[in-house]
Specification:
alpha/beta
Length: 360
């Protein structure tokens, strides 16, 4: 669940439910905590906007920026970015944070004592932390993506990802050890402070480990189906209609064709008709199909399955329309793709084992 806050440079800024929860906690805790939280996430937005603007400048689609409990994320079309471009996009965020830190730090030196200097020092510290933390070579941080992009100069995608994930987990262990030692030995931390650091370390461990493993799993899946094309997997269990078709007629088509997927084209888009219970309530039977429809993303029939997966992830879609020219020739659904990928991976593993046995 997410709420769209606003749009900046055409990019939607969304608030994840975890951020909203954190905001409510800050509101109930103290005005000071709330002010720090607002300042932090203002700087996070600037950090993420740097990723978004570099992406758009280089022709990479940007879906949205989402603010979460542990920071933010910029959702881009990663499949379209070369390793060199991915390197620049990933570096843009930490570099922006460090530049902002330098600017706020210089301003704090010359600012009068009081709330202005304190605020500038706070912004300096926030941006330094954002820049340094995100440059750490660990997935899903920017540093992990920078590292992977660099490794791809001499390795393929799967090998680069595997090595980057191993380095991510080593980096995480070193970071946790360093944070505990620093808190215990170099600060006048209370027992409460040590508990606080421990809790955040646990959260960071979960964040990095799950992010790194998810990145590796996606790389393995993409590698296993890299030679599989969309037309080999797509389903033709759908019907097409005209946008102005009445919903009572759509109902009849569903019964005859034994499918629940109804598509139509309008302009440059492809739309799926809502065939749920609400769509067929009595007062909607005479409405046009286009009134209860939603646009869905598309892939070409000769695209790879890896690209289709990337489109699904980018668009957060569970169904894709498959096209050949301007015609709809098939569909891909998330459940169907999951089944095909699982069976394809199992078959590839079995053939690999047979090959190893025959070689022996």
């Amino acid at each position: 669940m997410a709420i769209i806050l606003c749009k900046i440079a055409g990019v939607p800024i969304e608030l994840h439910w975890t951020f909203i929860l954190l905001f409510v906690i800050a509101l109930l805790t103290s005005i000071g905590f709330l002010a720090i939280l607002v300042a932090l996430f203002a700087m996070v937005i600037l950090h993420e906007l740097a990723h978004a603007l570099v992406s758009k400048r280089n022709g990479i689609r940007v879906k949205r920026i989402i603010l979460m409990f542990l920071g933010g994320g910029t959702i881009i079309d990663q499949e379209a970015a070369s390793p060199e471009l991915a390197f620049r996009i990933s570096l843009a965020g930490p570099l922006t944070s460090i530049i902002l830190a330098l600017l706020f730090g210089m301003a704090a030196i010359f600012a009068p004592a009081g709330i202005i200097r304190y605020s500038l020092q706070l912004l300096f510290e926030i941006n330094i932390l954002l820049g340094i933390f995100n440059i750490l070579p660990a997935f899903p941080l920017d540093g992990g993506r920078i590292l992977k992009s660099y490794l791809e100069k001499t390795r393929n995608n799967i090998d680069a990802t595997k090595l980057a994930v191993r380095i991510s987990k080593i980096t995480l262990i070193l970071f946790i050890i360093a944070s505990v030692i620093y808190t215990a030995a170099f600060t006048s931390a209370s027992l409460y402070d040590l508990y606080f650091v421990t809790v955040w370390d646990i959260i960071i461990i979960m964040f990095v480990y799950t992010g790194a493993d998810a990145e590796l799993e996606m790389a393995k899946i993409s590698d296993s189906v890299k030679n599989l094309k969309v037309y080999e997997v797509m389903s033709q269990n759908f019907i097409t209609i005209k946008p102005a078709t009445k919903m009572r007629n759509v109902y009849g088509m569903l019964l005859r064709h034994k499918t629940n997927i109804v598509l139509f084209t309008k302009g440059n888009g492809i739309f799926i008709v809502n065939s749920g219970k609400k769509a067929f309530s009595q007062n909607l039977l005479d409405s046009k199909a286009e009134n209860g429809a939603a646009e869905i993303p598309t892939v070409r029939k000769n695209d790879s399955i890896a690209k289709a997966l990337g489109v699904m992830r980018y668009e957060q879609a569970t169904i894709l329309a498959v096209t050949s020219g301007r015609r709809i020739v098939g569909i891909l659904t998330g459940d169907h793709l999951d089944s095909v990928i699982a069976l394809h991976s199992a078959k590839a593993s079995e053939e690999g084992r047979k090959g190893e046995t025959s070689a022996k």
